[in-house]
Every structure is written in structure tokens, then in C-alpha cells.
């Protein structure tokens, strides 16, 4: 018998109290103007007629050319730059072939909008097949990134609860500030131990441990020691396994299956996932044991509902198997978004001291030195939010996404595509479109502020930068990630001036599925005078 089923029986009398803790999850919404109509058409034979073009008429590199771009020219770790190259050659829509799969690449905001607005009730992602292979091989349940259809819809509705709305994310402010407190103490220790007394040699590495500690505290209601000395070995192994999985997934995506026994990438990829799931299973088992212990000493009505996982397990909507499949995927997503975005943000603030000075003035104007920022304070920090938006525009965490429209044929820009066409969303090249974002390679957070006179205006488009996605399949943890980054960035800027270490030089991005720095980002932290 499922341990969780037994626990639910004991908790059945407390369901009424549990139901009142949090409103039901809501679908992500956005106030976005109506879709842009298709403009590229070929006239038909009769007056007012038109002929919709077909997939076969789309330009694009042949299969051998595409493989040469990936492996011969080295774009396998520069897929975002390959977007730029192919858009310049073929226009905003082109076709690529990878093995048996055909992909329609979309590289303009209006085209993204046309497809996203027609994605239906159950949007399908077809870029998760490798993840599914691992789950199938290990007999694991699919999570929110890998499951599809009605089951995905039900699972997502369950997971949305206590996560999706800003008011629900605000419930975690105290927990996140506790982790920020520990990170600031950890940072002071790192600085004191550095030769210069004020330097961190690999900022992304430190932010990774911060993000892992924070998301585990939210999901599993447990501190796992990422900011302690020494860091627990299973935590170190988890961090290594995430890098292992992402790095090797790039290669196994494009290499044929017959190479798997011959090359090391497939085994490394599976080993990475196995460690990730073992780590998640351990934390879930610990939570189940805590609930059992509470029930031995308290009545069902006295059991304390302490956080996200506890809430989901005792609601009766998530089985143990579903929890084992879902929580590791949420854990993975929560770590990469925060750690990489924070690294890029500090990198650019260190290169733009005037923007950093303005941000410091804004932060201390709302939260003076010695006080701790709270969720309500960020309504009065527009530049802080703009810095994070601009960072995510320059470096969308996931530079490439996908959709498969399964319910109907779809018309896009004068082309008619059959059901089950695989569309690739080229987010990186779209968010670097100079028509929408003038001087797109420049870090200009003021472009996000209304009535700003400091940057040239672009042609605003709501789909120009959508780092958290759109619609019912938008990022589940968006509000948590935003709050986490706001709390940490405001505290860092409140207390330190950040200066780029000269040896760092120019940092570029690599597409390891997610966008990461191509080298260590070394920073000096100079304490501010109160």
C-alpha cells in the first residue's frame, strides 16, 4: 500500500482546514494585444483568393549542412548564435532537419505570437524526448516538463497551487530571506578568505549553491547545507550531476542512437539524471517520514502544514509516484534560472557603474542600510525589476523552446502547416531584434521603464522577450524565481559595490541547453559606507 495513501486516511478529517489554506491554482495570464495577421501570401487564381504555401516551400539548410553547422563549425554549444546566422540567411522562418525530425524555426515576435495563440488547451513540447527516455528506462513518472495532454493539465493544475500567483509566492518571503541571510554570511567568509580580502573567483558557482538551498527549502521544507562548511557530499554530487546531464544532453540530442554504446555521452547523461532523482527521492522520503512522526504524536487536525510539498501531499491530489517525478524537475528549473540570471546581472552591473549607482540609490531609498527588503518593497523599485528584465532579455535562460500543435492545422505567415508540425521558438534571436530593442547587445535596463529618455524607443511587442514563456505552459515557478532574485540582488547592492575583476575580461554565453557563461565570472565586493 502507498505510504502516502495511508497517511491521507489519517488526515482525512483535516481536509476542510487544508482546503482553506490556499486558493486553487490559476492559469498564467497576460494582457497582450491581438495577434498580428499573416502578411506573406501568394495570390491564388481568382479575385481576392490566395494560396497558402506549404512546408516544402520553406528555405533552410539541408540535413548535412545543418549537421556540419552543429558538429563541424562548433555550433552544438552555440545554438543561440546559430539562430542569428540562419535568420540572417533565410529570414524569420526556416526549416531544419535532424534525423527523422523536421523543425520549423520561428525567429520574430509576430510569428511567435501567431503560434502561441493557437497552441490549444494542452500545449505539447517535443524537446523533452530525451528526458522521457530516461524516465521510461528507470520506470519513473513523468513530471510537469515531460508529461502531455490531459494528464499534464491535471498535474499542472495541482502544482500551480501555492506557487503561481504573486500573493502565493509572497508566502515564501521569510524563508527566502533566511537563505539570503545565510548567503550574505557565506559571502563575507569567502571574501575574508580571498587573497585580496574582497574577491569571489567563481560567482556562478556560489549562486548555484544559493539557488539550490533556496528552492529545496521551498519545495521540500528542508535546509540541505549548501551554504555550510563543509557542504554535504550528496549536495555536491547533485550539483555535479546537473552539469553532467545538461552538458551531455547537447551531444546525445544530435548524435544517432547507434553511437550510444560507442561514445560516453549517453551513459554520462543517464548517470546525471539518476543522481538528480536519487537526491529528490531522499528529500521526499524524509518529508513522508516527518508526516508519519507527526501523526504518531498529534491528531489529524493538529498536523502542521509547513510548506509546498507537505501541502501537495496532504491535499490528496498528488501520489507518491507523481511527487517523485515532478519535484526533481521543479528543483532543476529553479536552480538554473536564479543562478545564471544573477551571475549575468552582476557581471553587467559591474561593467556599468553608473547603472549600479542608480540602483543602489533606489534600493537604499526604499530599504535603508540595516533593514531587510520585503516583498512589498519591490513595488517601489522599478529599476531593480528592469535590471532583471534586461538581463533575461540578453540571456533568456532557455534560448530555444518548442511547441507541437496537435489539435489542428495551423496558418503562420502565409504558410499552412499540418497537425503535429514541430515549431522551434528562437527566443534568443527574437529578444535581440534591433527593431524591438535598439542596440540589442547593449545592457540598457532603462528601456523597460516608462517615459525613459535614456534609450532610443523600439517598436514594443509583448512577445519580444518572454523568458518565462506564455499561456498555460508558462513557467510554473516564475513568481518564486522573481522574488528570490529581487531579495538577493537588492541585499547585495544595498551592502556592496560590485567591481569586475580585470582577469575576467569579456564573458560570452554558451548554450548548454540553458545559457551559461563561457568562463568563470570573478568579482570584487567592496563594502559600502553606511
From TrEMBL:
GO molecular-function term, one example from the UniProt record: oxidoreductase activity, acting on paired donors, with incorporation or reduction of molecular oxygen
GO cellular component: mitochondrial inner membrane
Membrane topology: Peripheral membrane protein
Gene Ontology biological process: C21-steroid hormone biosynthetic process; cellular response to peptide hormone stimulus; cholesterol metabolic process; cortisol metabolic process; glucocorticoid biosynthetic process; vitamin D metabolic process
Database matches in Pfam families: p450
Chief site of localization: mitochondrion
Sequence positions that bind heme: 475
SUPFAM superfamilies per record: Cytochrome P450
Cofactor: heme
UniProt keyword terms in alphabetical order: Heme, Iron, Membrane, Metal-binding, Monooxygenase, Oxidoreductase, Transit peptide
Locations listed in the record: Mitochondrion inner membrane
Family under the similarity heading: Belongs to the cytochrome P450 family.
Name this protein carries in UniProt: (raccoon dog) hypothetical protein
The species this protein was found in: Nyctereutes procyonoides (Raccoon dog)
Amino acid at each position: 500500500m502507498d505510504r502516502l495513501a495511508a497517511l491521507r486516511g489519517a488526515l482525512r478529517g483535516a481536509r476542510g482546514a487544508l482546503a482553506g489554506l490556499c486558493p486553487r491554482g490559476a492559469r498564467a495570464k497576460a494582457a497582450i494585444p491581438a495577434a498580428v495577421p499573416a502578411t506573406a501570401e501568394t495570390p491564388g487564381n481568382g479575385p481576392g483568393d490566395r494560396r497558402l504555401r506549404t512546408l516544402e516551400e520553406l528555405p533552410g539548410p539541408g540535413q548535412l549542412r545543418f549537421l556540419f553547422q552543429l558538429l563541424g563549425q562548433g555550433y552544438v554549444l552555440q545554438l543561440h548564435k546559430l539562430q542569428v546566422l540562419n535568420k540572417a540567411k533565410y529570414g524569420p522562418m526556416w526549416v531544419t532537419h535532424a534525423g527523422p525530425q523536421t523543425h520549423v524555426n520561428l525567429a520574430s515576435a509576430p510569428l511567435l505570437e501567431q503560434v502561441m495563440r493557437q497552441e490549444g488547451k494542452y500545449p505539447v513540447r517535443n524537446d523533452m524526448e530525451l528526458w522521457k527516455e530516461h524516465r521510461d528506462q528507470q520506470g519513473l513518472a513523468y513530471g510537469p516538463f515531460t508529461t502531455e495532454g490531459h494528464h499534464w493539465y491535471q498535474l499542472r493544475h495541482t502544482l500551480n497551487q501555492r506557487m503561481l500567483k504573486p500573493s502565493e509566492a509572497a508566502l515564501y518571503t521569510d524563508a527566502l530571506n533566511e537563505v539570503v541571510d545565510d548567503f550574505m554570511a557565506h559571502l563575507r567568509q569567502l571574501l575574508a578568505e580571498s587573497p585580496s580580502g574582497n574577491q569571489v573567483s567563481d560567482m556562478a558557482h556560489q549562486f548555484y549553491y544559493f539557488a539550490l538551498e533556496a528552492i529545496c527549502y521551498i519545495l521540500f521544507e528542508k535546509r540541505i547545507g549548501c551554504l555550510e562548511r563543509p557542504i554535504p557530499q550528496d549536495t555536491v554530487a547533485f550539483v555535479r550531476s546537473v552539469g553532467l546531464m545538461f552538458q551531455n544532453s547537447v551531444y546525445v540530442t544530435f548524435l544517432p542512437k547507434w553511437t550510444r554504446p560507442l561514445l560516453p555521452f549517453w551513459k554520462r547523461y543517464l548517470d546525471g539524471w539518476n543522481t538528480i532523482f536519487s537526491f529528490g527521492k531522499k528529500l521526499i522520503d524524509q518529508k513522508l517520514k516527518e508526516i508519519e512522526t507527526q501523526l504518531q504524536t498529534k491528531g489529524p487536525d493538529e498536523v502542521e502544514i509547513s510548506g509546498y510539498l507537505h501541502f501537495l501531499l496532504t491535499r490528496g491530489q498528488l501520489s507518491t509516484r507523481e511527487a517523485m517525478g515532478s519535484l526533481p524537475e521543479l528543483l532543476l528549473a529553479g536552480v538554473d534560472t536564479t543562478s545564471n540570471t544573477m551571475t549575468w546581472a552582476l557581471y553587467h552591473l559591474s561593467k556599468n557603474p553608473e547603472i549600479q549607482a542608480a540602483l543602489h540609490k533606489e534600493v537604499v531609498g526604499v530599504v535603508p542600510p540595516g533593514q531587510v527588503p520585503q516583498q512589498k518593497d519591490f513595488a517601489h523599485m522599478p529599476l531593480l525589476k528592469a535590471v532583471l528584465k534586461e538581463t533575461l532579455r540578453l540571456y533568456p535562460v532557455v534560448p530555444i523552446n518548442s511547441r507541437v500543435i496537435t489539435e489542428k492545422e495551423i496558418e503562420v505567415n502565409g504558410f499552412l502547416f499540418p497537425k503535429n508540425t514541430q515549431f522551434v521558438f528562437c527566443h534568443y534571436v527574437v529578444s535581440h531584434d534591433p527593431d524591438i530593442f535598439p542596440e540589442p547587445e547593449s545592457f540598457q535596463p532603462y528601456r523597460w521603464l516608462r517615459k525613459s529618455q535614456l534609450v532610443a524607443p523600439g517598436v514594443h511587442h509583448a512577445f519580444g522577450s518572454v523568458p518565462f514563456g506564455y499561456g498555460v505552459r508558462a513557467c510554473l515557478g516564475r513568481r518564486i524565481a522573481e522574488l528570490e532574485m529581487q531579495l538577493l540582488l537588492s541585499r547585495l547592492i544595498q551592502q556592496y559595490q560590485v567591481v569586475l575583476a580585470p582577469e575576467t575580461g569579456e564573458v560570452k554565453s554558451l548554450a548548454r541547453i540553458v545559457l551559461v557563461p563561457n568562463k568563470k565570472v570573478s568579482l570584487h565586493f567592496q563594502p559600502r559606507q553606511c
